[in-house]
């Protein structure tokens, strides 16, 4: 029998020979609905109603599931681990007693490490202090990070290798976020690679009411690789590229000037912002400990799940992670771990966007084999919800704020995660005085989403007028392009130039859009 076969059967709670014990007896509504799918007729999604609760049980095609199991067995020896995070940024440089690591032994190991990496890993007392402090006081945290690193490092190494970036850069994500995809700093930097909102936009990471791509491990890693590669092209030195990743190229250039023109990180370190001054020592200390983990007796636990034991399914309609958890029996915490970029634990379905659900490999077949029924159940459940789901809105990188009674600059600055001095600079303010009704331009560190207007009639804003060009070429926007990446393709062209020539007010561009680029 082909197609969909729906049958109703009775379920017995106890087997005939089971000893009858009162505590084992359940009162069950004995309706089971079975859906057979495809030619194999062995995949099924069944539901059992116990009192007022419906319990779902999904099974995959056994033959295909066996192939998945064989594939998983091939990948299992890749030494991937799992579990917790802890920040590694707090640094002190006082001498630390740690008899298990004599200075001479450390010097010899750093020399070997220096010979095989493009970083300057030469011994100095400050680095020794950080390494010994980590080994003495943060051993438990480091071992947990080592477990978690084995989930993410293969992903990082693949992208780093694709873009010809040193594989040791993978340790930067530990210093940045302690490998927590949803990490958010006090100033709004977000994700494994801690992108600020504007920088993330510049490298193609979108933020909306549902999705923050800075939290997506793959997309954020690709963006971080592009950013780091651009910084290396500027400085020609990976130590300085890392310093500028933390504090910006401008601060590194100031430090170089103040040091008298030195371009070695250790010579300009005292002229860098305090956090950046400790940034490279934290990175190098982490690299050393991970590279010599066995010598220091670290024994990370095996992971419950490896990156290569997961796969993605493109969603065909809106679905929530709790629905997926219920229908195919995956723990909610596991789904959140695998799908960190969905801010509300909801996967939207938007035209021209490819949003995917990442699942453990042994659940992918189960989901695909039963997806028609899963989507039907999901839609029916969402339609019944008393409170509608929020609408999808793109987040803005610039807002116009109207001053209200009781507002002052400090209050507005805290609301949007910016400094008072920045608001004054953006708006040409010479004092802290504000007037009710005054309009302020703000570039929030905390992304703000567009909200639906309450009025039915709105005044249309006049599009920004493009500057007329006599001598220009036309560039067609490709997938993955940003205004920043396009500006780098043309000598002497800035992002502001492109926006001015084409009447663009924000940073949003789409594949296929044609942009005028001045030849003069």
UniProtKB/TrEMBL annotation:
<protein>
    <submittedName>
        <fullName>LysM peptidoglycan-binding domain-containing protein</fullName>
    </submittedName>
</protein>
<dbReference type="InterPro" id="IPR023346">
    <property type="entry name" value="Lysozyme-like_dom_sf"/>
</dbReference>
<dbReference type="Pfam" id="PF01464">
    <property type="entry name" value="SLT"/>
</dbReference>
<dbReference type="InterPro" id="IPR008258">
    <property type="entry name" value="Transglycosylase_SLT_dom_1"/>
</dbReference>
<dbReference type="InterPro" id="IPR000189">
    <property type="entry name" value="Transglyc_AS"/>
</dbReference>
<dbReference type="Pfam" id="PF01476">
    <property type="entry name" value="LysM"/>
</dbReference>
<comment type="similarity">
    <text>Belongs to the transglycosylase Slt family.</text>
</comment>
<dbReference type="InterPro" id="IPR036779">
    <property type="entry name" value="LysM_dom_sf"/>
</dbReference>
<dbReference type="InterPro" id="IPR018392">
    <property type="entry name" value="LysM"/>
</dbReference>
<feature type="domain" description="LysM">
    <location>
        <begin position="473"/>
        <end position="517"/>
    </location>
</feature>
<feature type="domain" description="LysM">
    <location>
        <begin position="399"/>
        <end position="442"/>
    </location>
</feature>
């Amino acid at each position: 029998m082909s197609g969909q076969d729906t049958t109703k059967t009775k379920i017995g709670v106890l087997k005939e020979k089971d000893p009858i014990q009162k505590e084992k007896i359940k009162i069950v509504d004995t309706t089971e609905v079975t859906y057979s799918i495809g030619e194999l007729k062995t995949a099924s999604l069944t539901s059992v109603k116990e009192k007022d609760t419906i319990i779902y049980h999904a099974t995959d095609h056994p033959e295909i599931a066996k192939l998945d199991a064989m594939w998983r067995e091939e990948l299992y020896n890749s030494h991937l681990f799992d579990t917790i995070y802890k920040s590694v940024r707090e640094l002190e440089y006082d001498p630390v007693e740690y008899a298990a690591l004599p200075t001479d032994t450390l010097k010899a190991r750093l020399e070997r490490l220096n010979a095989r990496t493009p970083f300057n890993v030469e011994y100095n007392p400050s680095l020794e202090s950080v390494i010994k402090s980590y080994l003495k006081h943060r051993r438990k945290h480091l071992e947990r990070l080592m477990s978690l690193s084995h989930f993410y490092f293969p992903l990082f190494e693949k992208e780093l290798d694709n873009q010809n970036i040193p594989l040791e850069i993978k340790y930067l994500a530990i210093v940045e976020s302690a490998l927590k995809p949803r990490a958010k700093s006090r100033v709004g930097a977000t994700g494994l690679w801690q992108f600020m909102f504007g920088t993330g936009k510049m490298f193609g990471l979108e933020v909306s009411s549902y999705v923050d791509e800075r939290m997506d491990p793959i997309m954020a890693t690709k963006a971080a690789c592009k950013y780091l590669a651009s910084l290396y092209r500027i400085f020609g030195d990976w130590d300085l590229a890392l310093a500028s990743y933390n504090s910006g190229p401008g601060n590194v250039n100031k430090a170089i000037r103040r040091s008298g023109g030195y371009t070695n990180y250790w010579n300009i370190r005292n002229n860098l912002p305090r956090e950046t001054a400790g940034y490279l020592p934290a990175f190098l200390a982490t690299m050393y400990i991970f590279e010599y983990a066995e010598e220091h007796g670290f024994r990370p636990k095996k992971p419950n799940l490896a990156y290569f034991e997961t796969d993605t399914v493109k969603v065909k309609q809106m679905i929530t992670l709790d629905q997926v958890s219920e229908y195919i029996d995956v723990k909610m915490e596991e789904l959140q771990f695998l799908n960190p970029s969905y801010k509300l634990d909801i996967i939207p379905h938007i035209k021209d966007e490819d949003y995917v659900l990442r699942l453990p490999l042994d659940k992918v077949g189960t989901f695909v084999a039963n997806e028609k029924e899963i989507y039907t159940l999901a839609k029916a459940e969402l339609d019944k919800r008393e409170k509608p789901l929020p609408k999808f809105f793109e987040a803005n990188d610039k807002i116009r704020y109207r001053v209200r009674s009781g507002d002052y600059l400090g209050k507005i600055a805290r609301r949007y995660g910016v400094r008072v001095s920045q608001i004054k600079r953006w708006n040409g303010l010479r004092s802290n005085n504000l007037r009710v009704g005054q309009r302020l331009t703000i570039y929030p560190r905390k992304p703000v989403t567009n909200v639906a207007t309450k009025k039915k009639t709105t005044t249309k804003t006049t599009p920004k007028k493009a500057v007329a060009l006599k001598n220009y070429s036309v560039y067609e926007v490709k997938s993955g392009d940003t205004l920043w990446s396009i500006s780098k393709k043309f000598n002497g062209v800035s992002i502001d130039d492109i926006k001015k020539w084409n009447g663009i007010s924000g940073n949003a561009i789409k594949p296929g859009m044609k942009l005028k680029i001045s030849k003069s």
